[in-house]
Design goal:
The chain has 3 domains: 80 residues, no CATH class; 189 residues, Rossmann fold (3-Layer(aba) Sandwich); 58 residues, Orthogonal Bundle (Arc Repressor Mutant, subunit A). The chain is α/β, with parallel strands linked by helices. The chain contains 15 helices and 11 strands. Helix 1 runs parallel beside helix 3, helix 6 runs parallel beside helix 7 and helix 9 packs across helix 10. The longest helix is centred in the middle third of the chain and has 16 residues. Strand 4, helix 7 and strand 5 form a beta-alpha-beta unit.
Length: 395
């Protein structure tokens, strides 16, 4: 394989934490970074498949070399990884933008984000990556924000930044933009913006000056390649990064069916604390917040309510098992891979099914590792796909 690297490949910052995947022997080589980026950009390689391939093969280089064989085993004998020339163009664009690569399993990748099930395989980062070391809170809300919501977002963004808490949001108009601006204006931890498209394709266009300021004074992140304008499907994907980077998600003002509520649900699924600002019952823009509060979200009156939650998270003791772990279950009889694949397809539909639910629904016991390997093969073969949140669907 061709691992020629353009001069000046964007480097990585110092390690932030132990990587979640197998550790590399020393800093990653240029070839390893190139291979991980190429693997992430290859057809049908989602976050879960990327993680499994790296865990199984140890390095991006080995996983990339094994990829055509895995696809052939799944029935796609014409599979070719992402074009190396296109990856070089992406790297050149990153160099022009002044961005650096953060790859899952490599020192420098955000620790909290690495813990979610569908953590992005790669991120391009522009700005101060030290923001990722700080406590962080997501502030999200409607684009068509009321005056009261804007005042609240501005106060929360300013006060959190002054308290050393990085404000994370999605660079949308309305609540997001106000929270970003307030955090930048405060002398504190600043802000982190997650883009839905490439770092060079800011959306909405009215926030281009704000995005430039965040890149210069805060941190901008995107899992998308340079030059890609955001599509509708990219916004939910961005939202799971916003919540994944954060210890808590604060919804300032949101309708019951909105992107902000998707972010809140992502936060709940990821084990994050969810907080909401109450709104008037007659204002549809606040219906989502009121629903969250009805269902147990923490009510926010000001920054002290958020800091109290963060302090409680920091004070939680490390969990210890109450009793010795149970004896390992007996190993089930192996099931032929073709038969197992047939059973999996019979259980799946266009409605996403969680992998753990699929494991429980299989008629015969199957080791989790066996199922995981098969699902990766079936995804590469084009038989199944993963949707945002990790759910599996039949194609």
């Amino acid at each position: 394989m061709d691992y020629a690297i353009p001069d000046g490949f964007p480097g990585l910052p110092d390690a932030l934490a132990e990587p979640a995947l197998p550790e590399l022997d020393g800093p990653p080589s240029q070839a390893e970074l190139f291979a991980r980026l190429r693997l992430a950009r290859s057809r049908r390689i989602g976050p879960a498949t990327f993680r499994r391939l790296i865990a199984e093969h140890g390095t991006g280089i080995a996983a990339l070399e094994a990829l055509p064989g895995i696809a052939a085993k799944a029935g796609d004998r014409s599979y070719v990884p992402a074009d190396a020339t296109a990856i070089r163009r992406e790297i050149k664009a990153a160099k022009t933008q002044g961005a650096r690569l953060l790859a899952l399993g490599v020192p420098g990748y955000p620790t909290r984000l690495a813990q979610i099930a569908d953590a992005p395989a790669v991120l391009w980062a522009e700005g101060d990556t030290a923001r990722l070391l700080r406590r962080s809170v997501a502030i999200v809300g409607t684009r068509n924000a009321s005056s009261l919501a804007r005042r609240m977002a501005r106060a929360l963004g300013r006060d959190l930044a002054k308290e050393g808490v990085a404000v994370v949001s999605g660079l949308a108009r309305g609540v997001d933009a106000v929270a970003h601006e307030a955090a930048l204006d405060a002398a504190g931890a600043g802000t982190i913006a997650v883009h839905a498209g490439g770092l060079d394709r800011v959306y909405p266009a009215e926030n281009v000056p704000l995005a430039a300021r965040i890149a210069a004074e805060g941190l901008s992140l995107s899992e998308r390649a340079f030059g890609l304008a955001p599509q509708a499907r990219d916004f939910p994907r961005r939202n799971r990064i916003v919540s994944g980077l954060s210890q808590a998600v604060v919804v300032v003002e949101a309708a019951a069916k909105s992107g902000s509520m998707i972010t809140a649900r992502n936060g709940l699924d990821q084990g994050r604390e969810v907080l909401a600002v109450p709104g008037h019952p007659f204002d549809g823009r606040a219906s989502g917040c009121n629903l969250l509060l009805r269902d147990g979200a923490t009510l926010v009156r000001g920054v002290d309510d958020i800091l109290e939650v963060l302090d409680a998270l920091a004070g939680d003791p490390a969990p210890y098992p109450a009793s010795p772990p149970p004896a390992p279950a007996p190993t089930p009889e192996p099931v032929a891979s073709d038969e197992l694949a047939r059973r999996v397809l019979n259980l799946l539909s266009p409605v996403p099914t969680p992998e753990d639910q699929l494991l429980r629904d299989l008629p015969a016991p199957v080791p989790a590792g066996t199922l995981a390997a098969l699902l990766s093969e079936m995804e590469l073969g084009g038989h199944i796909a993963r949707r945002p949140g990790g759910g599996l669907v039949r194609l």
